[in-house]
Known about the structure:
Layout: H1 17-23, H2 27-30, H3 37-44, E1 50-52, H4 55-65, E2 74-76, H5 93-99, H6 109-121, H7 131-134, E3 142-147, H8 155-161, E4 164-166, E5 173-179, H9 183-195, E6 203-206
Parallel strand pairs: 1-2
Antiparallel strand pairs: 3-5, 3-6, 4-5
Amino acid sequence: xxxxxxxxxxxxxxxxxxxxxxxxxxxxxxxxxxxxxxxxxxxxxxxxxxxxxxxxxxxxxxxxxxxxxxxxxxxxxxxxxxxxxxxxxxxxxxxxxxxxxxxxxxxxxxxxxxxxxxxxxxxxxxxxxxxxxxxxxxxxxxxxxxxxxxxxxxxxxxxxxxxxxxxxxxxxxxxxxxxxxxxxxxxxxxxxxxxxxxxxxxxxxxxxxxxxxxxx
Length: 216
């Protein structure tokens, strides 16, 4: 494992006292600090995979800050590991660390990253394989399917099946992401249970290079 990359940047407004109490970061500590995108690009360049614990949140900010993150495949340790199936009652990083017998100073990025690596390297309690092994599926193509113009009364059935509401994208509709081998069954569900007729809902393939990105 290489040396961690950790930098500070002065924000555009004063740090609230509550944030200082939580993280230890103060206005004096970050005064005059900046993060050089070129330095970030050099550090990230050798990476074969970027892992984040909630990549849907982290990737959008990373791509806006430095273009190198657009060129890398991403995986999510929050959604990409079957934590529930392995017997975990939650997915928050602090909870997972506690269940693995790990204790760390949270709320600072480099500490969170090191804790995530430690958790992913440990064998899962039921399957016995490291959690990192489950993230190999991130490289497989999946499909995002939108239940566009689904009847309002179908909301409960869609939520129960795992659909989420996308109110900011196009189309504005309930959507789900499924593996390639599950796509035909999902289309059959929509036609039989939601629309009661043959339809072809909007869908698109996703890979690790665009999954979790605003570009989706």
